[in-house]
Amino acid sequence: MIKISNSVSLQENEIEWQFIRSSGAGGQHINKVSTAAQIIFDINASSLPEFYKSALLKKADHRITKSGKVIIKCQASRSQDFNRQTALAQFIELVASVGIVQRKRVATKPTKGSQRRRVDAKKQKGATKVLRQNKDF
């Protein structure tokens, strides 16, 4: 069981793991060992609640494909196990992020003091610019 939040969890078999070769420098070891971990998760075929599915599909994230799959690749470490843990943490963070509903911002009026400070700053800048002017015509 993969716990996303207090009320949402996924089965282990809903996530497909692939282990591939890491890119970049590393010598002989990295060229023959598949240490990079890649998660492939199909949003539409998952057991996530509809709210999570729709929010994930609407989310503008490069890790979510147009076909509705989440692909997370981690190759930060030379250890396959560490890359697997990091990829899973990134996946959980991505899915949990859509479950947090942002509160709507309530517009407030600026205080008298903040308005006064803003106008005073503008007057000071204007006075500085007047001093810079060349008055010789």
From TrEMBL:
Residues 7-129 form the Prokaryotic-type class I peptide chain release factors domain. Its EC number is 3.1.1.29. It is an enzyme of class 3 (hydrolase). GO terms for molecular function: peptidyl-tRNA hydrolase activity; ribosome binding; translation release factor activity. This is Aminoacyl-tRNA hydrolase. InterPro entries: Pep_chain_release_fac_I (IPR000352), Pep_chain_release_fac_I_sf (IPR045853). It holds the Pfam family RF-1. The keyword Hydrolase applies. Residues 106-137 are annotated as: Disordered. GO terms for biological process: rescue of stalled ribosome. Keywords: Hydrolase. Belongs to the prokaryotic/mitochondrial release factor family. It comes from Shewanella hanedai (Alteromonas hanedai).
